[in-house]
Automatic annotation (TrEMBL):
Catalyzes the conversion of S-adenosyl-L-methionine (SAM) to carboxy-S-adenosyl-L-methionine (Cx-SAM). Keywords: Methyltransferase, S-adenosyl-L-methionine, Transferase. Residues 61-157 form the Methyltransferase domain. It comes from the Bacteria. S-adenosyl-L-methionine binds at Y38, G63, C64, S65, D88, N89, D116, I117, N131, R198. This is Carboxy-S-adenosyl-L-methionine synthase. Pfam families: Methyltransf_25. CDD domains: AdoMet_MTases (cd02440). It comes from Pseudoalteromonas ruthenica. NCBIfam families: carboxy-S-adenosyl-L-methionine synthase CmoA (TIGR00740), PRK15451.1 (NF011995). It catalyses: prephenate + S-adenosyl-L-methionine = carboxy-S-adenosyl-L-methionine + 3-phenylpyruvate + H2O. Its EC number is 2.1.3.-. The keyword Transferase applies.
């Protein structure tokens, strides 16, 4: 059973959110109670990876955190000669991810790397997953990262992108935020926790509208983009090269 997230339960001087050891300890509970449909997203990303993986290619999990998507992809892989490369810039996340993966047997090799995905070497890829990762990349560097991902993908390869969205206008954004906060209240978060978490994350998570995401994917060369899941301001899409 996961440890309950109570990081923001007590009033405090709120600092910018980081994926440190404290967050790692409660991350499964935090994500389950904060992201509507998270389990569905992770399991479906694995199925999509299984569908689009090509023999003797790499599958990347960029911003892998504890390896939930890596595990899901590995579970669904049937093509021969594939390797999964999982990358995260949090030492605490990477250490726990390696331990977590060791608990599940598989013939598919996984290389868990500590590093910045902006500098990572990407090549011979058929699937690249970014599950709630792009929103933590500086906005001015997102186009270049997507270009590198596109260039690393083989024809017919896919980018699996999940993101928290900003509403297309102020009224819609307020509606989506309110619905999300109701979701968090229903999962036991207090008003103090919701407020302090929002303060902690506002400087490190910069969300885009759905139209911004789709235009950027088109601009770097993806031929098709399809949203397959959305609940409130959380969305997952597949972009095909």
């Amino acid at each position: 059973m996961s440890v309950k997230d109570s990081i923001y339960a007590a009033e405090q001087q709120v600092k910018d959110f980081t994926f440190d050891a404290n967050v790692v300890e409660v991350f499964p509970d935090m994500i389950e109670r904060s992201v509507p449909g998270y389990a569905t997203i992770v399991s479906t990303l694995g199925k999509l990876a299984g569908k689009y993986a090509q023999p003797h290619t790499r599958l990347y999990d960029l911003g892998c955190s504890l390896g939930a998507v890596t595990l899901s992809m590995r579970r669904n892989l049937t093509q021969s000669g594939c390797e999964i490369v999982a990358i995260d810039n949090s030492q605490a996340m990477v250490e726990r991810c390696r331990m977590h993966l060791q608990g599940f047997r598989s013939a598919v090799p996984v290389d868990v790397q500590l590093g910045d995905i902006l500098d990572a070497k990407l090549e011979n890829a058929s699937v690249v997953a970014m599950n709630f990762t792009m929103q933590f990349i500086p906005p001015e560097q997102r186009h270049a990262l997507l270009s590198r991902i596109f260039n690393a993908l083989k024809p017919g390869g896919v980018l699996l992108l999940s993101e928290k969205l900003k509403g297309e206008n102020a009224d819609v954004d307020e509606l989506l935020v309110d619905l999300h906060h109701d979701f968090k209240r229903a999962n036991g978060y207090s008003e103090l926790e919701i407020s302090q978490k929002r303060t902690a994350i506002e400087n490190v998570m910069r969300t885009d509208t759905l139209s911004t995401h789709i235009k950027r994917l088109q601009d770097v060369g993806f031929s098709q983009t399809q949203v397959w899941y959305q609940c409130f301001n959380f969305c997952s899409m597949v972009a095909i090269k």
